[in-house]
Specification:
heterodimer, A: 249 residues, mainly alpha, 11 helices, 73% helix, 2% strand, elongated, B: 188 residues, 7 helices, 2 strands
Chain lengths: 249, 188
């Protein structure tokens, strides 16, 4: 290493006057000393922030547009249009009702996050990270309740349909207690507190959305297992004109 | 905004929630899980402890590699996917070498662990491999430390799901191993 440095120095000496080399070395040394003074570093960071505010505004808005094409939204579309038709819940009626319920959930996951991003398009870059984190968590947690409420309100018309909706909802609700939402929330908190890795709110939001498809996949897998084990609670009941048959084990 | 050297980024990586969460699973979650009988409890917890420790060490090996920063992102994503997700049979073999003292031990390990892995973990793992690939191909992340940091969140969630779903999975695994023993514990 030392030999390489000496070689470089010698070749510079051959091509440049000594005074220029000394000036370069002096500037390098000055830069190194300044980087050790906290006040200088803070001022430099402030200047960088102002620079980013002025010149990166367009770039940030572009990043927000890209956020709306995130893999998360692609995955929701895939589940809604393709995957849901490959899941099997025991019989045609169970398939019908659970696929309907999944559609509600997917629409909620898609619309609520899109709304969060588009409604706050201008403010996201400058929002306090804690506030954005809370908005994201609230959106996702409220969604768990609202899609079930909407499902019941829009699809369960007769008393029997309301009972069926209640059985499904309580099963799914109980199931939530054991899933990985808690870990996900911890992860989001960790992402939003990591300014050294994720330099702005858009990067934080993007990193937070990335693990969500995994949570959706887990939910679908568990839904399949849990609803097969309802042990005859639905058998004989009618939903939208379809009768639940006893499940053959 | 701060000016960061690769050294401090490495330190940040080593303080990732991933490592704290694995420790939490090992010390607080796994010991409380119930799988139906004493023998299942013993074997599955033993395997989980082995696998979780391996998950931790594998990532530490990858991030301690000095070439990490300069590695081709595509190659790095393949290394992570191979080591963490496809390397299951390698893990199973090592686990059998360590814990399978008799032929009966190995037979039971094969039956229970492989069946669980095939049904409950493989579909998720291939899904995660695709997610990881996306992190390494998108232009959003500028260097391998940031890519790695983001990847660890996805693997963390996969491991969390794997551990928490194991209870549901193992309750439904019945059959051929009834009456067999491992390290003195008999399967009911």
């Amino acid at each position: 290493m030392e030999k390489v440095i000496i070689e470089i120095f010698k070749s510079l000496q051959n091509n440049l006057p000594v005074s220029v080399i000394v000036a370069i070395l002096f500037l390098l040394l000055l830069g190194w000393i300044l980087s050790k003074i906290p006040a200088v570093v803070t001022s430099f960071e402030k200047i960088l922030k102002i620079y980013n505010k002025i010149f990166n505004k367009k770039h940030v808005q572009r990043s927000i547009d890209q956020l709306l094409c995130n893999g998360y939204f692609r995955h929701i579309m895939y589940v809604k249009n393709v995957k849901v038709n490959t899941l099997y819940f025991g019989d045609d009626t169970r398939n019908y009702i659970v696929r309907l319920l999944i559609d509600y959930r997917m629409r909620d996951l898609e619309d609520s996050i899109k709304l969060l991003i588009t409604n706050n398009r201008e403010s996201i870059p400058n929002m306090i990270p804690e506030k954005l984190e809370q908005e994201l968590i609230n959106t996702l947690q409220n969604g768990i309740k609202t899609y079930l409420e909407n499902f019941k309100k829009n699809e369960a018309h007769s008393d029997e349909e309301k009972i069926i909706a209640d059985i499904l909802i309580s099963t799914i609700w109980d199931n939530y207690e054991h899933d990985s939402w808690k870990t996900y929330i911890e992860m989001v908190h960790s992402i939003f507190n990591q300014d050294d890795i994720y330099k702005n709110n858009v990067a934080k939001l993007e990193a937070s959305l990335l693990p969500l498809p995994l949570l959706v996949e887990n939910w679908l897998m568990k839904l399949e297992v849990t609803l097969k084990n309802l042990n005859g609670q639905l058998s004989g009941k009618v939903f939208h004109g379809r009768i639940f048959q006893p499940i053959k084990k | 905004m701060r000016i960061f050297s690769s050294k401090s980024k490495l330190k940040i990586l080593k303080e990732h929630l991933y490592f704290k969460h694995i420790d939490d699973l090992l010390n607080n979650i796994v010991p409380t899980l119930e799988f139906g009988d004493e023998a299942k409890n013993y074997l599955i917890k033993l395997f989980m402890t082995y696998k979780l420790t391996e998950f931790k060490e594998t990532i530490l090996d990858i991030i301690n590699n000095k070439k990490l920063y300069y590695q081709n992102p595509d190659k790095l994503s393949r290394i992570i996917s191979d080591k963490l997700l496809s390397g299951f049979y390698h893990t199973l073999e090592n686990f059998k070498i360590k814990e399978g003292k008799t032929e009966e031990d190995c037979e039971v390990i094969d039956m229970i662990i492989e069946r669980y892995w095939t049904v409950y973990h493989r579909p998720m793992s291939s899904f995660v491999a695709k997610e990881i690939k996306e992190i390494y191909t998108t232009k959003t992340y500028k260097d391998n430390y940031i890519r790695m940091y983001t990847t660890l969140f996805i693997i963390l969630l996969l491991i969390d799901i794997w551990v928490k779903k194991a209870v549901l999975g193992f309750y439904n695994i019945n059959g051929d191993f009834k009456g067999k023993k491992i390290h003195g514990y008999e399967f009911k």
